Amino acid sequence: MIASVLIKKFGIDNELKTIAEKVIASERINEEEGLLLYEKAELSLLALLADHVREKKNGKHAYYIKNIHIEPTNICVYKCRFCSYSRKEGETGSWEMTIEEIIKVVKEALKKNISEIHIVGGVHPERDIYYYAELLNEVRGVAGKAHIKAFTAIELDYMFRKSVKTNREGFEILKEAGLNSIPGGGAEIFSEDIRKQICENKSTGNTWLEIHEAAHQCGIPSNATMLYGHIESYRHRIDHLERLRQLQDRTGMFNAFIPLKYRNKNNELSSLKEVSITEDLRNYALCRIYLDNIKHLKAYWPMIGKGTTQLSLSFGVDDIDGTIEDSTRIYSMAGVEEQNPVLATEEINKMIIDAKRVPAERDSLYNII
Length: 369
Ligand code: SF4
What we know:
globular, alpha/beta, 14 helices, three-stranded parallel sheet, binds iron/sulfur cluster
């Protein structure tokens, strides 16, 4: 019924019509079909299909969380060409927080009833798994029931190798110290060709996937990301989504997928133009349609701004992250609009209600608080 209305409304060709019918019938689309949607589908058709998928998975809810980001250091052994954030030891603009300083920040944030502490940073050359286990232990000691989501697969890969631990052994140590889940950063684009050009030397796409699979096998859920809008093609994006979809078929432990837009200030790829808001919205919709086995699609508002985030709720997004409390510098150093990202609960609620969704404050595992 809806499919036939669609077809009449859009006057779409037969190939797109078949894909639209599959999406409406909750059938999985393949890589070629995903590519065709990226290349040919009108924005309004993508919005309609993605919204259909979102509604089926999440009803009217749009989720958010009260959270804080801790970035212990921006000193990093790698030098990704898209990164505006990392520095070498001793370089102007580098920072290293001590565990005591981190605990002070956590204690302050807990007064605001946050339910999640998100910890990611640079890959510090001297810090091994025992340092991070101690950090987790100390945070766990003051955090009460707050969920600790910490360390990208890139940080984990380095600390495990530095301490000569297998992925499984490493996760057992961190879990024991208080780790609850891991974030999705560091995925960038899995294609090795593209990684060679934008983040040579850092952990491969396969390593990222292996780390997340090991986390899932240890009972640690995670998120996934994709850095888009730089030198990758639509085919690279589809390949990335396909590899995530296959892993999710095996483990089912990705909670959310978060597309991350390349921002072009203060990094080695600054000559690239940023993609348009229209492209951001196409991409959200495609991700929602393609990742039929990941329940939540998140728009990270400090990266794309509040306006685009609100729009994204009509393109498959059901989660707009959290209050953040001005605690992240990763994107402000890349020149985004939100230089001091903080959203009051009232403002989040209004953004969501104005987009005709129902605000739902959640915990890290999407239970409504
Ligand atoms: S993106 Fe991450 S791994 Fe790459 S240089 Fe920046 S902080 Fe280091």
